[in-house]
Amino acid sequence: MEGELGRLYQRWSETLTQALAHLEAYIDFSEDDNVEEGVLSQVDATVRVLEQEIGAHLQDGRRGELLRGGVHAVIAGPPNVGKSSLLNLL
């Protein structure tokens, strides 16, 4: 995940995280003047563009294989340190 695909997936992750932050700010502070009026349309446009990018990526047989097949990971550690909580969050 350190190559070209890793950078692409990282950019997608950052884009989604930023869109989520804007959406949560709108929900939490929409009654205040601290949130821009067009934040919902901006989030919607961002997510739609990202959806198109991911769709196009999945259509590419070679490049979309990892995204379609998922990533295998191991969550290991001592008892009662939050492994199940982390898995549930993911």
From TrEMBL:
<protein>
    <submittedName>
        <fullName>GTPB3 GTPase</fullName>
    </submittedName>
</protein>
<dbReference type="InterPro" id="IPR027368">
    <property type="entry name" value="MnmE_dom2"/>
</dbReference>
<dbReference type="GO" id="GO:0005739">
    <property type="term" value="C:mitochondrion"/>
</dbReference>
<dbReference type="InterPro" id="IPR027417">
    <property type="entry name" value="P-loop_NTPase"/>
</dbReference>
<feature type="domain" description="MnmE helical">
    <location>
        <begin position="1"/>
        <end position="72"/>
    </location>
</feature>
<dbReference type="GO" id="GO:0002098">
    <property type="term" value="P:tRNA wobble uridine modification"/>
</dbReference>
<dbReference type="InterPro" id="IPR025867">
    <property type="entry name" value="MnmE_helical"/>
</dbReference>
<dbReference type="GO" id="GO:0030488">
    <property type="term" value="P:tRNA methylation"/>
</dbReference>
<dbReference type="Pfam" id="PF12631">
    <property type="entry name" value="MnmE_helical"/>
</dbReference>
